[in-house]
Amino acid sequence: MDFDKIVTGEKGDQMTDTTVDPAGLLAIAVTVAREAADTARSMRAEGVSGVTTKSTDTDVVTAADRAVERQVVAALGALRPGDTVLGEEYGGTDGDARVRWVVDPIDGTVNYLYGLPQYAVSLAAEVDGVAVAAVVRNAATGDEWTATLGGGAFRGKKRLAASAQTDLAQALVATGFGYDAKRRAHQAEVLTRLITRVRDIRRFGAASLDLCLAAEGGVDAYFEKGLNPWDHAAGGLIAAEAGLVVGGLDGRPAGLDMLVAAPPAIFGPLADLLSEFDAAGGP
Ligand code: IPD
Ligand code: CA
């Protein structure tokens, strides 16, 4: 790949700003995410180390989370000097660049801890605050999902389409839980009411992979309260580009209080039920 050409913005005689071209940003994202996933997988093979906790006693972070994020920040700094990066473990870098990279070095850290093959590197490129390129790579299996804004979502070379489900009562719905006990209690109350209104519930343990599953119809829909930008920046674009509606409750955009991803016919009914159950409320 000719990174210089991307960085300098030359594209024939067009006056296109290729420094923010989604395809060019995706190519960089994929390169960086693959190397990052290799590091996560090889560190896991050597054994989990450096385990400490963050927000609660069950919110773990490992040496691999930190090493992978440092690797991603360094790789992006070399390929795209001047861009900023927001990561889960080290926060944001300074600057006012148009492009911001949003990375979760290991999404699904509890799965990583237990050796369950459901943890991923999640990397998105935002231009002026809008996600335009995204990659989620399952570091354990090598499965990889990508999307560009307006360019569709893919697993490998296969273009993805969301489930065509139109009946919420027949929908398989994935979700997740936060790390705080009071929040989990509230989320469990919501689930006890929702579970009688849908086909079934799944909890896999990595929000980015949940969104990719929804993008390929492996589940019909997904929702979760409390997601941070690094949890959903990449997966949210992949789900939206596969045809899911991605949003919050009561007409709000997806955010910290709620993210719902569902096919157009069931987004409204699911969001209405979640609103009735106060799923975005509570601790
Ligand atoms: C978590 C996972 C989990 C979700 C949590 C996230 P982490 O991210 O995505 O599935 O339910 O809300 O915090 O801690 O594994 O990076
Ligand atoms: Ca993480």
TrEMBL record:
EC number per UniProt: 3.1.3.25
Keyword Cytoplasm: no
Any Pfam family hit: Inositol_P
Catalyses which reaction(s): a myo-inositol phosphate + H2O = myo-inositol + phosphate
Keywords of the record: Hydrolase, Magnesium, Metal-binding
Residues that hold Mg(2+) according to the record: 88, 104, 106-107, 231
Gene Ontology biological process terms from the UniProt entry: inositol metabolic process; signal transduction
Named cofactor requirement(s): Mg(2+)
Highest taxon in the source lineage: Bacteria
SUPFAM superfamilies: Carbohydrate phosphatase
GO MF entries: inositol monophosphate 1-phosphatase activity; metal ion binding
Listed InterPro entries: IMPase, Inositol_monoP_metal-BS, Inositol_monophosphatase-like
Membership in a protein family: Belongs to the inositol monophosphatase superfamily.
Protein name in the entry: Inositol-1-monophosphatase
